[in-house]
Amino acid sequence: MKSLLMAGSAAIALAGVIAAPALAQSAMAQTAVPNNILLAEWTGPYDTVPPWDQVKPELFPQAFQFAIDEQRGEYQAIANNPQAPTFANTIEAMEKAGRRLDRVQTLFGVMTDNMSTPAYEALDKEWSPKFSAASDEIRLNPKLFQRIETLYNNRASLGLDAKQTRLLTRTYEYFVRNGAKLNDQQKAELSGLNQKLSSAFSEFNSHLLKDESTFTQASAAQMAGVPQDVKDAAAGVAKAKGLPAGSYAVRNTRSAVEPVLTFATNRALRQKVWQAFANRGDNGNANDNNAIIKQIVKLRADRAHMLGYQSHAHWRMQDTMAKTPERAMDLMMRVWKPAVARVHEEVADQMVFAKKDGLTRIEPWDYRYYQEKVRKAKYDLSEEEIKPYFEQSNLLKGMHWAAEKLYDLKFTENTGKVPVFNPDVRTFEVTNAKTGQLVGVWYLDTYAREGKRSGAWMNTYRSRAGLLGDKVVLASNNNNFTKPEAGKPTLLTLDDASTQFHEFGHAIHYLLVDVKYPSLGGSQRDFVEFPSQVNENWLLTRPVLEQFARHYQTGQAMPASLVDKIKKADTFNQGFATVEYLSSALVDMKLHLDPTGNVDPDAFERKALAEIGMPREMVMRHRLPQFGHLFSSDAYSAGYYSYLWSETMDADTWAAFEETGDPFNRAVADRFRTTLLSTGNETDRADAYRQFRGRDPDVNALLKRRGFPVDGGNAPRPERGK
Ligand SMILES: [Zn+2]
Asked: Can you tell me the distance from the alpha carbon of 520 to that of 690, in angstroms, rounded to the nearest whole number?
């Protein structure tokens, strides 16, 4: 049931749960489990851990089929129970169902995200629609829904506590939202739509992965200006690709591309690298995603209409804090205007330098390069100056130190003690520093590699849920930092370091969640990014910098003057960062608000950007043909705004710490943990926020943090009440 109802714990790109129109097998639960490691109960320390070292693609078809059939049997037993429905025999029983399939899908999701091969891609393509069909088989089961509806209609007289009532209500609403009240013919159509969508998602993903596996070849002369560690890594890739000695290969992923765009003096190389990256999925070749996007958007619009909504965005936003697309758009537009104004200022600053190089205007492949020059001139601060102090292992220690100080979470490395899926994965035992009690295991997969999807994400292999007796959380962080050559340290940029803290914030959240029902362990989409973004704030606190930002060669602490410069440059580049993100979020929402769903993605993107006044010197962070958030699953569709919604709460939460004069104020941290983190989704999130802060979040905190003028205008606030 976890995968059905949890809105946003994992970044796993699986479309749903279960599968295949097979025979009803009510005796399934008694069937012997085949001898297949993927189906076996996990074993080992920490209340058992996944058998990563034994996962093989050829084991999945049997495991999928068996686990799907078993889950079908479990749900049929609930639906066909001759006894009248009770909370225990229906809702709680559903919470306990499908556990084996959850485990198999967890293993599969990690292999497709972190270790993909053609064999896994083929499996994903084949099984995604089957999982979708199996989910629908549950969600559209009339007997099951009848039991849920009966309970829902009588919920006031069932003697349920607040959490149980919330679970029942959410389960009922989830079923209705997904078609439980449609007639048989509509149900069949809906299920067909969902299966087509999941095939399309899988195809989109595989195209994107292929385009990100390409590279741009460059000579030593072309790489002039690029930092040595980046060049070393590019030389390593060139060698692995069998290119002649002395050449470099810039992989077509964000972490490889951005340093070249920031530092390469050779403008032609910057342009070439930028074009390859900005055009992923948009090259008119076998990996082109435009036709798939067109199909996805149309299918989504049709589905929304069938379910009684005017657009996919309206449908998707039912279970969010924002509630309606309009409220999300209001917040975005309030921040968009000052952000665009700031970009124009940033470009004017850049032109001072660009003119000296004979340029008459800034092109998108120039922005980062000249922005870096402005940073150096304005703040006497360069990325290269920071990096030697941001050695990854030191920063990990800083991150762990902060988590212990704030939440008593103690991290002790235990790499080698539990199986991992790649030798680069490090693991850490997590205990409560005060009681010594075991909390979980934290897996860290740091480096980019072929077959690993781009970006950074958190994932749980097991979450805490009292009903299931699951106490020890297994959480993982996944980044895509460039792997240094053997023996060299991993030096992070400020952006990478923030990403590391961000993903760790997700992990902290799930390590602290302490709920009874698994379905109340997740979060609404526009809440999910809140704990992670809050955690980014501790990176640039003085105690963390002074103790853990140590020069990788000399061991010297970061000089106070450099700390000051970093602090001073805090709002630098916020025009770029905000517009890059918000343009993507606005286009996402506009696309999914289109009531017909008949769009030409390329034309739509250009038109939507023109409407909002996108600065011509920039491009969206994710153009549609590579926007995995939107098209590799439904998860972030009409939902990319969530980061901003979450950041509104984040900025206001950080202000609560700052108001005390101590970023590690334990009283605030305790309140943050008990009201907002450990509660999962057991209570209304807007109510929980008010409990934490005594009021709704203040949007001005976010404007201030980004260095934009505070407007004091009509603040679109998260929904008041329910
Ligand atoms: Zn995140």
From this structure: 19
